[in-house]
């Protein structure tokens, strides 16, 4: 599967509720094997209920965005969430369906898991 096949897909909860659109993904690099870098493993999808646009890296912890860009990105992606890949049951035809109820994991690490503010 290619990342481009996931980006822009609608994400639906177990009960059929629309959670938003896949705007990015998170990967984990496996252990280095000699001189070769470890393989990448998909671990989560970033889902935005309000925008199809990317975060352009501004959601990452230590990136300092200019105030105006930060305000725009924050507004566009309010209530965005991380959906663990383990929660995904099927992917196909522009649609991602979850097989379990995924917890609400906010992008802002200062917010507790389960707190869906800003929707």
Automatic annotation (TrEMBL):
Protein name: PRC-barrel domain-containing protein
Species of provenance: Microbacterium alkaliflavum
Top-level taxonomy: Bacteria, Bacillati, Actinomycetota, Actinomycetes, Micrococcales
């Amino acid at each position: 599967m290619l990342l481009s096949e996931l980006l822009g897909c609608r994400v639906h909860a177990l009960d059929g509720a629309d959670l938003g659109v896949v705007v990015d993904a998170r990967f984990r690099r496996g252990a280095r094997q000699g001189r070769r870098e470890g393989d990448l493993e998909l671990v989560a999808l970033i889902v935005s209920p309000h925008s199809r646009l990317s975060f352009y890296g501004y959601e990452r912890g230590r990136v300092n965005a200019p105030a105006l860009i930060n305000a725009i990105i924050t507004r566009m992606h309010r209530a965005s969430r991380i959906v663990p890949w383990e929660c995904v049951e099927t992917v196909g035809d522009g649609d991602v369906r979850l097989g379990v109820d995924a917890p609400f994991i906010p992008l802002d690490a200062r917010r507790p898991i389960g707190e869906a503010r800003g929707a």
